[in-house]
Amino acid sequence: MVGYCGCDMGKRFRELIKKIGGGPQSSRDLTRDEAAIALELMTQGEATPAQIGAFLIAHRMKRPTPEELAGMLDAWEGLVTGIEPLTLPTRVMVMGSPYDGRARTAPITPMVALVLAAAGQPVLLHGGDVMPPKMGMPLEQVWQAMGIYWRHLGSDRLRSLLESTGVGFWYAPTHAPRMTTLIPYREQIGKRPPLATLELMASPYAGAQCVVAGFVHPPTETLIRGALALRQVEAFVMVKGLEGSVDIPCHRPAIVLHGAPHSHQRLTLAAKEYGLQGAELTLSPVATLPDLYRHDREFRRAILWNAGCYLWLGGVCDDVSAGLEQAEAVWGGAIALWERLQALTADRSTTP
After folding, report:
1. Per-residue three-class SS string for 205-242
2. What is the pLDDT of residues 154-186, one digit of tens each?
């Protein structure tokens, strides 16, 4: 365990609750090591349900710090089965969207990932099942509707597919079962704990990467950027996307940050400037999404807009216009990759 040796772990966790739960006048921030210890204790069964609930509420009320989130990410890496580095010509884009899904707008991230992969930009998405408190549509359901099945794949098979196809989806319940023990608390407390912010910037990939995280509120942007800097992440993109996701909107300008945590550029990307402004994509039943991806004009516009932007942000193309041209050119290849992944993941008998 990071930074702690002792036999009374329950007592130790109680001290951490006291530290963050003292109210506006006396609560104090955790150190990076203490935050790592807290997550480890909660996922190892060393903290009681009452203690876990108290910690999650107190941490939310106090507001997390970049140091605390960095510490929890330190612990998170030891609690999950990640993907070992690959020898690839470009960084893997690891895209993090809210695990509790979409409740108002249609997700396009899986199709964007296929276009990016077809254009030479490898992409790894991650997520899980329907999750409280939002209980929105998770990406895993979208992949299933597309006939691509990731949940049964072990880390070696997932790594192989990422290498050979340029795209992958890391299904958290398979690769991070200890983290899933904390999901029921989200429903019971009725609010997103800081763990939800952790999921936006977590990366299960150990190789050269660009972390892509969505956000809604400016404080979340600052938290994520600070935590990534402490973690010495070399490249990142942050997007004020739809419902906190990494989907860049077509109907309004989007704030985007990219570069390195200590040296980044803040800009606004507007689809209108490229003739791609469109309506907000409202949430549709998940079974209809594959057909919309293939044939609906508004969906295709949004997918190409996102792919073009990310091809530029990832360094594959020199500017957004070149990225848009490339995305359009590889559309047929993305459809072919979709069909290839259907065949490659069809055998769901594989165990992790």
Report:
1. ECCCEEEEEECCCHHHHHHHHHHHHHCCCCCEEEECCH
2. 999 999 999 999 999 999 999 999 999 999 999
